[in-house]
Amino acid sequence: MHSIRHARRPGALVAVVSLASTALVGLAVGPAATAATAATGTSAQIQYTTSTEAFTSTATVNFSAIAGETPSASSTSPTGTPEKRIGRPHPAGNRGTPITAGNTSVVRGNVAGETGFPGVTSPQSAAVNIPPAGITPFSDVAPPDQGTCTGPGANGNPITFDFVNDAASAYTTSGSVVWPVTPAWAMFGLPASAFLSDPRCYYDAPTHRWFFTMFTVGSPAPSDQYIAVSQTSDPLGNYTVFGFDTTDANNPLGDCPCFGDYDMIGADANGFYITTNEFSNISNPAGTPFYNGTVLYAVSKQQLESSATAAGASAPSIARYQITADPYGYSADAVGSTPAQSNGPYHLSPSSTPPGGTYAPGTEYFVESNSNLFSDNHLMVYALNDTSQLSAGTFPKLTATELTTEPYAFPPNAIQKNGPLPLGSTYGWHRSAPQLETDFNAVQETTYSAGQLYTELDTATVTSSDSGHAGVAWFDLAATAPTAANPQVTASVVNQGYVAASDSLLYPDMVVDGSGNGYLVFSMSGTSDYPSAGYVAVTGGQPSGPIHMAAAGAAPEDDFTCYPPFATPAVGCRWGDYSGGAVWGGRIYMMTEYIPPTPRDTESNWGTFAWSAPTP
Fold this sequence. Notes:
This protein is mostly beta strands. The chain is built from four helices and 38 strands. The N terminus is likely disordered.
């Protein structure tokens, strides 16, 4: 089956610009009750409703037992049309002025102590997702989003998961395979026909548990979210898989059944969190899906882990927050509305705290950029306060504040170095290599430790050597939780800047330890480079050059997402939705998409590169 999801991305000569700021624009508040009311701060507001969601299914899966599993001859083949994630509509006209940034040279080599190896590839993923005999749909999937998590294996040595859309594998630090490529449907105890998307994974160091998440559309139910939680500290042992319905059939806007797209995960000391972008399966008068804003799901981490371990234990309830308005937009869709307003809160990135880091006392933070506009210079910081309430089944209060930041802009597509296009030639494509989608100017991953939030996004940049390409805007923010004296979250910019090169830099992830030290990882692509894997050192929350090319791409991307009927040359090839990273044992583990020097299959040639390096 041709399966498409949503994105765009990356580079060669690079630059790092550092800006300092402490400007705070305003506050935003919202209710913790079930009524939909808005509270106004100095210059911002948020609106949300709350409800209780129940887990509707549980299953037990042993990861060792399913290793390398493939569909049986009796499996049902995938059906339906490919999903292509739809971003919010952007205003017509100028896409925003690229940000001026300096550039510095790329080092085609690694930092001392780095080790790396090819991870899961398109042919490997397809091989464990082959439809049953006699069924013809393709089993290739694109693009390969990376869910990355690292922690101790059963023997105490580090184990890293490369969880890539519909398949996953696990490796030692040196690249030895400890868990062969295994299909995602088996990981969640689902049929081979399940349409799964957006893998994420997380190792919770204080409780020694592993978490894996994905969502489904259309099978086995209209829309479901799944969480697999390890029953013990063994990453290849038994998991309890929890599922809950995200169809939102009773949404008062009347535009559901819906699905929770682009699930993002986070955790604090008390809770485990998933945010999704809720899209309708119904199209509005403009022909695009209705959009209902961000949905936040919060559940007690300890109760979830206890339920996973104790046979027959009842699953905890889920606190559901439907966030329908903030300063960046509101959701006012309704079936038949003209024109449709589909610009509610989007891509609210939950934070996670790395091993050895310091949790926020009773608080989970989230960061959102204004990706409703082609360019802006603000971020929103949300806080869910007193998260210990989750264990009592009550709703922690959600507040938010808006900050003035460095500007950022919607990134352009990335150019590829010209090279052989064996699939493209079958479509009559004999011109230059098609471009790569870089996606959007939305916040990617967020890390919290000791009062600091570290986050990043793609932006349009221009250096002295070119007229515009995708680069990285990064942010080091200070956040303070609400108190009785000050019931609003407060935040400020500690440091910020850009990383830019003559190549495009795609899908960044700032992977840092509790002191803000680590690496900024991304894909990179340009006129002199095939899609490659790159990174920059980060110290004290601040990236500084040079850019290291961890693995050079071996060819242009040349897969079914580049050509009709799945894409047009004006749109570009699908490329990642996000890169991945994790921290463990004094090393930073990184993964991103590139084109490997390994055999391709007919329809696709993507691969992933996994590497780690000592914390700088």
